[in-house]
């Protein structure tokens, strides 16, 4: 297990912004603080832009071509940046000012979407322009997402990490899936360039808001992590090797990272045949398919908001095991649902469990991995998870040819078995995160005025 760094006391004797435990003395909830509110505002603006873009670009593509293969190219452009640049992005995130990197990523996305809005408005856009903008925007998303996750432990005070992750996850679901998608559809009906212009503006707002964060949360120094020597490709390779070793060089870390990739593949396997299963087996009309999907967003928001309380009451390990077990059981329940109402409730509950898994897992990695390695470690985990998704999609399609319920049944079985096999590693990692929390809380209380 890594040795955690000691938190630095802030000016004026205030409690340090250490990675922390649930609650302070007397059990009172610790406020997330002004820095987090600014951070969250920037994230919400970016999430809104993401939701608009991911809805507007396919709509724009449909006006340029009716070839399904050409339209599907947007999905390739969306996921390819993670596979090509995910690991390298982790190296960059651990080398530079993370807040400035997030702001720069949003600025580039703003420019790309503004250019596309002009092209669409002038009638000069092509499908290839859509591919290029999608690829550029999602490449920036790789850097933005990793930077944000790596910076968060330095933004929030001890005792609030799970709550902060839950708020970010819930805000993302609301801004991206509810507000962003709805706005894009409404504005596109007025003029195809309008949602793209909104898109560019929201990214710019997100960039400007983040620039107000203090220098202390931008790039933490981490004692115990060897300094880089040399430059160029050899130095990058060394940094990348350290990140890979941080995740895959330790058995417990490797087991949990592979479990998360397995779950991602299983969930993808279910999603690729979802539209057919919902319409053909559960009898949901096309007009109500979007409403059915919104049940997942609602479940995800509730799950993200509930995670902090679950961790405080049950502990990280119990919360993880219950959430993974619920994912497996609910996948089977969804597949065997007798009708649309039962299926919708199961899909909502499944999204609840998935949100809990995502929030708790994020907090564990942020607590047990040193800050100077966090970008690289998260990039390794994310890249493996993204790489597992296409495999899950292929398997889901093949199983769906036999029976549309098979992908969900197989996913449930795989998740339960994978959780059982990885339980010892999950327990060790969860307990390591708990120990880091206790240390951070003790450090925070030591510097608390009047302690």
From TrEMBL:
UniProt keyword annotations, A-Z: Cell membrane, Membrane, Transmembrane, Transmembrane helix
Residue segments, region Disordered: 1-26
InterPro entries: MFS, MFS_trans_sf
Superkingdom, taxonomy of origin: Bacteria
Membrane protein topology class: Multi-pass membrane protein
Subcellular location(s) of the protein: Cell membrane
Keyword Ribosomal protein appears in the UniProt entry: no
Transmembrane segments: 44-65, 71-91, 200-217, 256-276, 288-305, 317-337, 343-365, 377-400, 406-429
Protein name from the UniProt record: MFS transporter
Phylogenetic classification of the source organism: Bacteria, Bacillati, Actinomycetota, Actinomycetes, Streptosporangiales
């Amino acid at each position: 297990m890594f040795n955690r760094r000691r938190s630095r006391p802030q000016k004026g004797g205030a409690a340090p912004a250490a990675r922390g435990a649930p609650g302070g003395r007397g059990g009172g909830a610790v406020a997330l603080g002004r820095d987090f509110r600014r951070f969250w505002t920037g994230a919400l603006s970016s999430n809104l832009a993401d939701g608009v873009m991911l809805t507007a670009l396919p709509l724009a593509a449909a006006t340029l071509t009716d070839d399904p293969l050409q339209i599907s190219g947007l999905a390739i452009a969306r996921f390819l940046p993670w596979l090509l640049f995910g690991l390298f992005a982790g190296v960059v995130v651990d080398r530079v000012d993370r807040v400035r990197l997030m702001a720069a990523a949003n600025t580039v996305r703003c420019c790309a979407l503004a250019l596309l809005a002009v092209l669409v408005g002038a009638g000069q856009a092509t499908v290839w322009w859509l591919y290029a903008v999608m690829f550029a925007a999602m490449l920036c998303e790789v850097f933005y997402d990793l930077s944000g996750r790596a910076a968060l432990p330095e933004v929030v005070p001890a005792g609030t990490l799970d709550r902060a992750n839950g708020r970010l996850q819930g805000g993302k679901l609301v801004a991206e899936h509810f507000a962003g998608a709805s706005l894009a559809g409404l504005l596109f009906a007025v003029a195809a360039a309008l949602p793209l212009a909104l898109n560019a503006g929201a990214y710019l707002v997100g960039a400007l808001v983040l620039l107000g964060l203090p220098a202390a949360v931008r790039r933490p120094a981490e004692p115990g992590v060897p300094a880089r020597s040399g430059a160029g490709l050899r130095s990058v390779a060394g940094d990348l090797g350290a990140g890979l070793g941080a995740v895959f060089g330790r058995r417990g870390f490797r087991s949990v990272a592979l479990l998360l990739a397995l779950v991602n593949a299983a969930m993808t396997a279910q999603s690729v045949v979802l539209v057919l299963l919902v319409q053909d087996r559960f009898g949901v009309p096309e007009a109500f398919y979007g409403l059915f999907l919104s049940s997942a967003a609602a479940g995800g928001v509730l799950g993200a908001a509930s995670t902090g309380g679950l961790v405080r009451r049950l502990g990280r390990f119990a919360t993880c095991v219950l959430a993974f077990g619920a994912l497996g059981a609910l996948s089977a329940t969804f597949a065997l649902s007798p009708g649309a109402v039962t299926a919708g409730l199961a899909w909502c509950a499944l999204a609840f469990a998935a949100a809990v898994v995502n929030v708790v897992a994020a907090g564990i990695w942020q607590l047990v991995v040193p800050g100077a390695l966090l970008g690289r470690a998260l990039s390794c985990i994310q890249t493996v998870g993204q790489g597992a998704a296409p495999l899950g999609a292929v398997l889901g399609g093949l199983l769906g040819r036999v029976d549309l319920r098979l992908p969900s049944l197989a996913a449930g079985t795989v998740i339960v078995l994978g959780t059982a096999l990885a339980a010892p590693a999950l327990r060790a990692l969860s307990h390591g995160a708990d120990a880091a929390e206790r240390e951070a809380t003790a450090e925070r209380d030591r510097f608390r005025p009047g302690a």
